[in-house]
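Task card 7
Instruction: Convert sequence to structure tokens.
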Amino acid sequence: MNNPASSYVEETRFGFWFLQSRVWEQHVLRVAVADLKRLIDAPLPSAAVLLDAGCGQGKSFRLLQQAFAPAQLIGLDADSHSLACSAREAERQGLSVRLLASDCAAIQLDDASVDMLFCHQTFHHLVEQQQALGEFWRVLKPGGLLLFAESTKFYIDTWVIRWLFRHPMQVQKSAEQYLAMLRDQGFEFAARNVSYPYLWWSRAKDFGLLERWGLRQPKPPGQRDETLVNLAARKPLEQARP
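Output:
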């Protein structure tokens, strides 16, 4: 069921359960945070305000605190049930997290109030993707860092994902389309700031089993339909866009 504003597509019951699982935390979140940190090629901001846009059930909070040591951590989600889980997770971890019940397409934060913005596996749930990206741009300070980790349409549009999860299929994009979207918004990044993880769970046709059994060789980057894209991008210090 969509939320009343139809700005995002809610998870299935299975999806909500999966986002609490150890597989999600260890094989998805932890791996993504480590990869995104590796892609950053400049010093991290000191005393940073870090926004987790689409924080879900808060499983990222401890990982983000350990990786980036922000002075303030903000978790944002439009789903009240997820936010309640986030509050319990933050308390369990002994972390101080400011939680916002807010849509990514209408973030209830001031302009240029965030140093780092973490958006992990959230964008493919959003119907109003362009508006959300504009909000990311607005709340980031000049020189601010966007940490973007997303599944592409080549993963989302597979039978097992369609069966177990729920997404707005009309807005799904390839890795190249996501990168173009971010560039068009004004974000800056180079090839060294982008990675295309080829993880077993993202190969939903066979979960990489044929390759692990030696029955097929994986295609190299550039010759396959990328299922994941990770990116560390900067909002320029001198803004070329309003």
